[in-house]
Amino acid sequence: MLTQAFAYKCWSDRRALDAIARIDRERFPEEHAFALQQLNHMAIVEDLFRARLSGETDPHPATNTQAVPGYDELRERLLTSGQWYVEQLAALTPDCAREVIRFRFTDGRSGSLTREEMFFHILNHATYHRGSIARALDQAGVAHPADTYTVFVHATQPERREG
Length: 163
Prior knowledge:
With 163 residues, the protein is mainly α. 63% of the residues lie in helices and 6% in strands. The chain has one domain (2-161): dinb family like domain (Four Helix Bundle (Hemerythrin (Met), subunit A), Up-down Bundle). The protein has a two-stranded antiparallel ribbon. A hairpin with a 5-residue loop joins strand 1 and strand 2 (110-114). It starts with a helix and ends in a 7-residue tail after the last helix.
């Protein structure tokens, strides 16, 4: 199920990114800046958990930055990150999925999650922030894409509508 869920995440992220690109930055600078800030936060959190899953040092001292990268950079980072998670899931064995990883959050507090829980966190985290972005899109007059799982399933497997 996680493999299918990450295919859904990648699909949803692309749709949100495409919608953000349609924000008129001159008329709606605050909404555009908010959307980029949310993308930046998503990318940083994905980087942090990717490092934790890989046994590497956290690449960021916090879950946001003062300077927010531009849209093109954030788009590339999120799409590349999504693909990394898809590839890691494809290689994840049941025993490895249950492995507990201990780490420190950026606030210094300790934590531990199984690998499987880390994947679920990234999936859920992205969904939460795409919801926030949807409100900014609404305020900027850009239709936000429906990104529910059922829309994904029927868009990618239209034969499931038959019957």
